[in-house]
Amino acid sequence: MAAGDAALVDFIELHQRLFVLTGAGCSTDSGIPDYRDADGGWKRSQPVTFQAFMGDDLTRQRYWARSLVGWRRFGHALPNATHHALAKLEQRGNVQLLLTQNVDGLHQRAGSRNVVDMHGRLDTVRCMGCDHRFPRHAFQSMLLEHNPVWATLDAADAPDGDADLDGQDFATFVIPPCPECGGILKPDVVFFGENVPRDRVATAMQALDDADAMLVVGSSLMVFSGYRFAHAAAKAGKPVAAVNLGRTRADPLLNLKIEQPCAEALAFLLRDRSAAGAEEIA
């Protein structure tokens, strides 16, 4: 067992009720790119803001055109070893709550049940007029029906279902309106410039209050919506551990930091399951 493994094992054994916060580093092994480099800086231009999406037709056309291409792979991404390891941790009874900054739903697909999707889910589309919601897969069919030529295009994957589709005339892209009221459709996720719903924050803060310690997995915590929980944990005297490659905003607050890929650092949780299965067979 590596030194990092041993330290993390000890941390989990010592703190049986963990508040777990996850970020993009959990999903990179599922083929979903992350946003930030090892120093916490942007790898690409910042994501579209809520204000730009709602206020500009061309911004919405560009967003949904790129999403049409990116969804083909994002919508079929599968959980990886990190998701399965955290599901195992919950099954062991060690997770008070898993709060994820990701919008891919892969924790739930891996078997985690006590999950709060802080920034929403990309697999749901929401009308900003009447609040009607329906599956993103259904909206993909609508987009393709209105834009058949765009179905032939491909581009490199970008974070959260986006694609690096540049050099196109996005003004020709047709966005279907809400089938209920004709309003503007938006993915049911929190964009930059939007606030995380208060009920999600309240649920997460209550879980943090009830937890023994906090474990951060695959997040630089550069966005305040995630960092606030590490700050609250440290202020309350709760130990904070992080598994992350590179700098995090909460580095001065950490009691333990494991700078390894998430799947590698958490592999012992899946080895435990394999060992138990071997013993049952024997």
Brief overview:
This protein is of the alpha/beta class and 282 residues long. It is built from ten helices and nine strands. The chain has helices at 3-14, 50-55, 57-74, 81-91, 106-110, 136-146, 198-210, 224-235, 262-265, 267-281; strands spanning 18-22, 95-100, 115-117, 120-127, 133-135, 185-189, 213-217, 240-243, 256-258.
Describe this structure in words.
The protein has 282 residues and is of the alpha/beta class. The protein is 38% helix and 15% strand. The chain has ten helices and nine strands. The protein has a six-stranded parallel β-sheet, with helices on both faces. It is elongated.
- How many strands, which pairing sense, and closed or not: the largest β-sheet? 6 strands, parallel
What order do the helices and strands follow?
A: HEHHHEHEEEHEHEHEEHH
The proportion of strand residues reads: 5-15%
Shape: elongated
**Poorly predicted regions:** 273-282
Strand order of the largest sheet: 3-2-1-7-8-9
Structural class: alpha/beta
Q: Report the mean per-residue pLDDT as an integer.
A: 90
Give the number of DSSP strands: 9
Q: How many H/I helical runs?
A: 10
**Proportion of residues in helical segments:** 25-40%
Calculate the terminal CA-CA distance, rounded to whole Å.
24 Å
Round the Cα radius of gyration to an integer and report it.
Answer: 20 Å
